[in-house]
UniProtKB/TrEMBL annotation, chain A:
Topology class, membrane: Peripheral membrane protein
Keyword Metal-binding: no
Organism: Lingula anatina
PANTHER family linked to this entry: VESICLE PROTEIN SORTING-ASSOCIATED
Primary localization: membrane
The protein's name: Vacuolar protein sorting-associated protein 45
Keyword set includes Membrane: yes
One CC-aspect GO term: cytoplasmic vesicle
Automatic annotation (TrEMBL), chain B:
BP term (GO), one: vesicle fusion
SUPFAM superfamilies: t-snare proteins
Organism, as annotated: Lingula anatina (Brachiopod)
Family according to the record: Belongs to the syntaxin family.
Gene Ontology cellular component annotations, sorted alphabetically: Golgi membrane; SNARE complex
Localization per record: Golgi apparatus membrane
Bilayer disposition of the protein: Single-pass type IV membrane protein
Predominant location: Golgi
Pfam families: SNARE (PF05739)
Protein's name in the database: Syntaxin-16 isoform X1
Residue ranges of domain T-SNARE coiled-coil homology in the record: 227-289
Positions of transmembrane segments: 299-319
Keywords: Coiled coil, Golgi apparatus, Membrane, Plant defense, Protein transport, Transmembrane, Transmembrane helix, Transport
Amino acid sequence: MNVVLAVKQYVTKMVDDSGQGMKVLLMDKETTSIVSMVYAQSEILQKEVYLFERIDSSARETMKHLKCVCFLRPTKENVDLLQQELRSPKYGLYFIYFSNVISRQDVKVLAEADDQEVVREVQEFYGDYVAVSPHLFSFNIVGHCQGNNWVTPALTRSVQGLTAVLLSLKKCPMIRFQNSSEMARRMADNVRQVISKEASLFDFRRTDVPPVLLILDRRDDPVTPLLNQWTYQAMVHELLEISNNRISLASVPGISKELKEVVLSAEHDEFYANNMYANFGEIGVNIKTLMEEFQKKSQGQSKVESIQDMKAFLENYPQFKKMSGTVSKHVTVVGELSRLVGAHNLLEVSETEQELVCQGDHSLALQKIRSLLANDNVRDIDKLRLVMLYALRFEKHSNNDVTGLADALAKKGVSEKLRRMVGAVVDYAGSRVRSSDLFGSKDAITFTKKFFKGLKGVENVYTQHNTLLQELLDQLIKGRLKEASYPYVGQAQLRDRPQDIIVFMIGGATYEEALAVHNMNKTIPGVRIVLGGTHIHNMKSFLDEITHATSGVSRHTSGRRW
Amino acid sequence: MATRSLTEVYILMRNNALQNRHIFSEQVPLIKDAHVVADDRMALVSGLSTDPEAGIGVTKLSRLPPEWVDTVEEFQFDITRIKEKMKELVSLHNKHLNRPTLDDSIDEEHAIEIQTQEITKLFHRCQRLVQQINSKGHYGSAQEQKLAQNIVSSLVRTLQDLTVNFRKSQSSYLKKLQSREERSKHYFETVNLLGPDFSGVGPENEEDLLYDRGFTDVQLQSVEDNTVVVQQREREIAQIVRSIQDLNEIFKDIATLVTDQGTILDRIDYNIEKTSVQVDEGLKQLQKAEKYQKKNRKMLVIVVLAVIVILLLIILIAVKSHH
């Protein structure tokens, strides 16, 4: 159950299968991202793949001495482009790999275009998703829905991607979905249909306990993407934005040219792999040790006097160079993070957020939010964050003062576009839409649990919040997940404790949830969980998502004006 | 990791398509039976264009692979040879170290020396080949340059890994040799007479001998024996150090060519984006240039017209004033 490895194996296999000789890898926009996430260029160069091209690039030249490995999504445009390519082939031989199921009709179209018989191999390799971490995948779709309904291309893409995940992991699961969400139901049905249509593909060796696919809707937990984060990966995404493991540092003041854009990939960066889930304080300490180690090494490097020193230096030079790159990268990133934390009072903001969500003392929260709204150092987006969380948390509270806070936002010059989000988030995922008990106020058990937790005191005020996902997975593993709220597709039911779980979050997952899943994988023996989503959200992309979802839909809450 | 192969289906479909085309092209003349002469010519022309061989022939002529392709193959062959030789060398080293014979077999040392030299030579050759590819790669179209660049960085990496390996094995051999030396020192205490510094064996040695005249003949004899041994070892070590130094030079040369692993430059998508941006920029530059040119032309016309107008005015004035 490692999605990075699965995709990497596909790429390795297609490159190896084409045999010796110089190769060009021909991809489309999406497969470029897919391949880039698992293979570094220097790594794949060692496999004699010397050229990388996009199929829609017009500037390609004829090079008959190259073999062409095509890795493409089976879309209409790609088939058209490939057909043109085969009519006048630019490369010597073609090995075609589609990332998903392709129709026989399309294969025929290609076969008819191939007069010169240059195609050697046509296969389906189901690496049709972006593998972010071993247990996390994404399709990079923003704007998956309008109102309460799927946008059709997004649904098709999601179903294709999810079935590809199942195929690449060799799982034929039982499907459960969130009953309150029409979108989850539709998606579950579609996945079921694909599985029964391609029954021969999904005919894997039966395991004792069948795997479970759980399909959830982001609307049930709109809080997680709105919170500030304090673990390395999540924090970088929230403050600097990670896209396909790449981070743009162009906005950092006084940045050097080679650090304008950096890569944070656990596959190729040991320090990051060890620290991506560490919290901000720990990273500070770890980066200090890294720095010290580096200094020791560089001092050792500086005195090159004897032949012996020279030898030692040259032997260690590549590692040294790599290490110096890693150090400067992480120091820059962490430096920028701590600058932002200091400049924008993020500690205070985050503490208020956490208390707001986890404790819910109305008057205290309101008071704190008001004082933060008055603070000029706090960023607009953080002010908005607080008001949105307040609006969600105290939606039904009798003294709720969302109007007053919205006015305060306006007074502070927060743009109209952002202010509209307060109402939009309640439309998108207010208590009317949610089915689960997000803030733990209805259920007696959770209430007492919370009470005891309060007695024990909290370890870290900035990371009190636990995701709803974690709770659901906990229930699922213990076999307590209610069937009425999360029914099965079809008749079969799981009797035993599930072992392999694939969770898909319609509307996007977050790195906080990825961390929760990572911890569960580590601590619960015998359970392996993979998390996926239409996107990996931070606050900004989540706002885009909400804007998209609520645009063009008449407001249910007419007469409410914030 | 499930996969599904459609190759058989594809080939079946392709064969069917080819057959259909043949049947179709044979049927065409039958339909237009009346114009036999015209049809003959048509069939010839169309036959030429659908003939796959013709197409390939033309493209092959126009597009020969760049000449450095052979160099790449040569390089790869050399690399396999280096690998073999290194294996042999390691086994020789082990033999030499683990079975120290009293007679200090010169043959073995000689073999090691030769092997080391050959490997170093091969490394040099490989480096030369890479540089050839590198310099030849600057010619040709943009994509060929890109290809050459990628190949060079990949070959350099292979070469670098190998040199590092080789150097490690050499220095570990050296270390073992030296430690054996130290051990032997314990047995032949007199070696201490040569002083802590080994490097000045020659002249210092004589001085020492002069100084220590009071030794018995037996002692002198043993010192002389040891001197010979030490000198021989010294030569051996110097040889290995030299081979390491040679490699260092190669290393320095190629270090500049290595791409930075783990940085953004090592991302496939980044590099693709970069080239497409470059192409876009090129297009923009061209458009700009075109615009400038057009503007220039307009300017020229305006100037010419203005000059004509002024000339005519002067002529007019001249003509009027003459009246």
